[in-house]
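Weekly modeling sync, notes
Attendees: AB, CL, MP (scribe)

Item 1: holo prediction request
CL wants a bound-state model with zinc ion before deciding which constructs to order. AB pointed out that an apo prediction alone won't tell us much about the pocket. Agreed to run with the ligand included and paste results into these notes for async review.

Input as submitted:
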Amino acid sequence: MPATVDQIIRSKRRTIAIIVHRDGKVVVRAPLKTPERLIHAFIESKSGWINEKKAQAAQQVALPVKKFTGGETFLLLGREIPLRVVDGQKTALTFRDEFSLSKKALPGAQAVFTKWYQARAREILTGRVQFFSKKFGLRYEKIRISSARTRWGSCSSRGTLSFTWRLVMAPLEVVDYVVLHELAHLKVKNHSPVFWAEVARMLPDFKRQRAWLKKNGRFLTLDGEE
Ligand SMILES: [Zn+2]
């Protein structure tokens, strides 16, 4: 099937480039003087690639941008926790079986939630790191909570383990995979087969958790940004 192009933009450039945007829009950038037929021949030669990219774009689900309205849900360890927005609550945000957000805190709700997640991340990750480091006899220096978007964890040469707070939105098995991955780096710094053998020794089904993170990691967000 020949690919359709939405826009051709000519500018002072030397080569033709095709860009398929996230919304599926196809834009071709071309030099000022390239004849139209050459541009179309180029597009035709890339038809397969363009159609494949467009199909991928169509499959991308929009990321959840939180609006902080009642009934909206927020992830904690893989569970969808509903939100209630209430009048006259002293604390900005409380959590029991559901989130309860004070109406007064609405303008800064994203910051309030981020702070809440950061505190939970510190608790949960400290607990998991202590449990597994004891179980496998590993020594770390300290734990740091970051706000990274795609880097779930890291391990410094001094043994500081960093984890993004977003990780506690994921199911506990996934959290454990990232924890064990970073703990394995205390022994092996790189991602060699020796490293993966070490991860597999501690968590035999780690590939399932790693695949989950790869597929769903982009949804662990409050603001829809990647
Ligand atoms: Zn690693």
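Recorded for review: The beta strands are 7-11, 17-20, 26-31, 73-76, 79-86, 93-95, 99-102, 142-146, 153-155, 160-164.
Action items: CL to compare against the apo run; MP to circulate these notes.
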